[in-house]
Write a structure and sequence with these properties.
Layout lengths: L1 E6 L4 H11 L7 E8 L3 E8 L2 H4 L3 H4 L6 E7 L17 E5 L2 E11 L2 H10 L11 H9 L5 H11 L2 E8 L3 E6 L8 E5 L2 E5 L3 H5 L3 E5 L5 E5 L3 E5 L9 E2 H7 L5 E2 L2 E2 H15 L6 E4 L5 H11 L7 E3 L12 H11 E3 L1 H4 L3 E6 L6 H12 L4 E6 L21 H4 L2 H8 L3 E4 L2 H7 L13 E2 L1 H4 L7 H5 L5
Parallel strand pairs: 14-23, 17-20, 20-21, 21-22
Antiparallel strand pairs: 1-4, 1-10, 2-3, 2-4, 5-6, 6-7, 7-8, 8-12, 9-10, 9-11, 12-13, 15-16, 18-19
Bound molecules: guanosine-5'-monophosphate, iron/sulfur cluster (SF4) and magnesium ion.
Catalytic activity: 5-phospho-beta-D-ribosylamine + L-glutamate + diphosphate = 5-phospho-alpha-D-ribose 1-diphosphate + L-glutamine + H2O
InterPro entries: GATase_2_dom (IPR017932), Ntn_hydrolases_N (IPR029055), PRTase-like (IPR029057), PRTase_dom (IPR000836), PurF (IPR005854), PurF_N (IPR035584)
Cofactor: [4Fe-4S] cluster; Mg(2+)
Length: 466
């Protein structure tokens, strides 16, 4: 998901809509905005579909007045059951004795089932099926006297991954979980401030990137006093999601002080060093494979070309929720550039193989177009484990790499060769010169290693085997 908030500007919701538009790649199912105006109180709008199709209407935006607003773009993750309902769309809102508060959450709470059971038993009335709603109910039960303190209380009970943007009548609040699994950054916007999942959304509103919110940090921002920083959690070594670098974030974002584009290009360089091949053409699977393909071509000296053309009017394939739509999706979205491919030995670079659906279809299309050989090069290690921290990977059984060896996968996909970057190679590409520290890994890489930095307790209860 993507989260965004703004304080201290006229018509904050307009800025939030723009920010969410820049974060659309993080969630395409639905979006929502809550604003607050001193005379009009809290207002909210939640809609299915793209930001640009909803939050561009003047009529709608006029219903969201005020100098303070937050928003969310949703993409349903592992825990969600069935079709999203509008009541599952964030931000969530709660009314407390000291006033209202709204929250938008990116990540996944790994003990949400247990918390929900406990809260319902004690009288909470849930409105949605979302794990994130627990936070509001935990806040309601807290005995603290102000909302930021209630939020601290609530988040100390929550396990898993969370970046949160929240607001009260006068405050914009941002929090990252102690491991800092999901991103959150701070920006300065004229006299006001912005919080965003990624820096690309600060760029679109002309805000200046100030810094990341630290893992385990809470910032409370007011128009008068600016940013106050609090550390509600016991300090731990951070474990940022390495897959944000590979795929999830936009290439024009900055993570830490690294350009995501440059990291991805470097992944391609490492991949070319680790898995060389004689070929005539390096092609990305657009768009997610593009920077890595550029790096691969550069390092290998094999010419780069656009052998696959993407229809710009389709979204990301994997966010489409059903298998049937996903299967069609590949052809609706990608087509082969026959004139370039014909007779060539082609290296195809993609970011990841999950179910293998995309790769299989693409291989067929490339061979139909007359390619002599097809070699897959993948910018991440085999995805053998599901993510429980906010990225939508299917159940373990559906992951190709969970049930097949690399050679079996090559056979299954029907390609001449298939190679993945090593975990160490990936760590080098993100800037860890000596690779992964096996005793204390610098990142979360559970979907590749099976080493979960936070025990996925709800899933273990459901029978998941680590
Ligand atoms: P597959 O077709 O193998 O199931 O999905 C792989 C494609 O989905 C890749 O091209 C990749 O861009 C995209 N994808 C990337 N990340 C993820 C993810 O976390 N989960 C899923 N399901 N697909 C992803
Ligand atoms: Fe990221 Fe993978 Fe960890 Fe999920 S399991 S947070 S996708 S590195
Ligand atoms: Mg892709």
């Amino acid at each position: 998901c993507g989260i965004f908030g703004v304080i201290g500007v006229t018509d904050a919701a307009n800025f939030v809509a723009l920010g969410l538009h820049a974060l659309q790649h993080r969630g395409q199912e639905a979006g929502g905005i809550v604003s607050h105006h001193p005379d009009h109180g809290f207002n909210n709008a939640r809609r299915f579909g793209y930001v640009r199709d909803n939050f561009t209407s003047q009529k709608l935006m006029e219903t969201l007045p005020g100098p303070l607003a937050i928003g969310h773009v949703r993409y349903s993750t592992a825990g969600s059951k069935g079709q999203t309902q509008i009541r599952d769309v964030q931000p969530f809102f709660g009314e407390f004795s000291m006033g209202g508060a709204a929250i938008a959450h990116n990540g996944n709470i790994t003990n949400a089932d247990a918390l929900r059971r406990e809260l319902i038993e004690r009288g909470s009335i849930f409105q949605s099926s979302s794990d994130s709603e627990c936070i509001i109910h935990l806040m309601a039960r807290s005995l603290q006297r102000n909302i930021p303190e209630r939020m601290e209380d609530a988040l100390r009970r929550v396990e898993g991954a969370f970046s949160v943007v929240a607001m009260t009548r006068t405050k914009l609040i941002g929090v990252r979980d102690p491991l800092g699994v999901r991103p959150l950054v701070l920006g300065k916007l004229g006299d006001g401030w912005a919080l965003s999942s990624e820096t690309c959304a600060l760029d679109i509103i002309g805000a200046e990137y100030v810094r990341e919110i630290d893992p385990g940090e809470m910032v409370v921002i007011t128009a008068e006093h600016g940013v106050e920083s609090i550390r509600p959690f016991r300090p731990q070594k951070s474990r940022f999601c390495i897959f944000e670098h590979v795929y999830f974030s936009r290439p024009d974002s900055i993570i830490g002080d690294r350009s995501v584009y440059e990291t991805r290009r470097q992944i391609g360089v490492e991949l070319a060093r680790e898995t060389p091949i004689e070929a005539d053409l390096v092609c990305p699977v657009p768009d997610s494979g593009t920077p890595a393909a550029i790096g691969y071509a550069h390092e290998s000296g094999i010419p780069y070309g656009m052998g696959i053309i993407r229809n710009q009017y389709m979204g990301r394939t994997f966010i489409e929720p059903t298998e049937q739509i996903r299967n069609m999706g590949v052809r609706l979205k990608l087509n082969v550039n026959r004139a370039l491919i014909k007779g060539k030995r082609v290296v195809l670079v993609d970011d990841s193989v999950v179910r293998g659906t995309t790769s299989r279809k693409i291989k067929e299309m490339i061979l139909d177009a007359g390619a002599a050989e097809v070699h897959f090069r993948i910018a991440s290690p085999p995805t053998a484990w599901p993510c429980f921290y906010g990225v939508d990977t299917p159940q373990r059984e559906k992951l190709l790499a969970a049930t097949m060896s690399e050679d079996e996968m090559r056979e299954h996909l029907g390609v001449d060769s298939l190679k993945f970057i090593s975990l160490d190679g990936l760590y080098r590409a993100v800037g860890e010169a000596s690779g992964r520290d096996p005793k204390s890994p610098q990142y979360c890489d559970a979907c590749f290693s099976g080493e979960y930095p936070v025990e996925p307790s709800d899933m273990l209860e459901k029978g998941f085997q680590m």
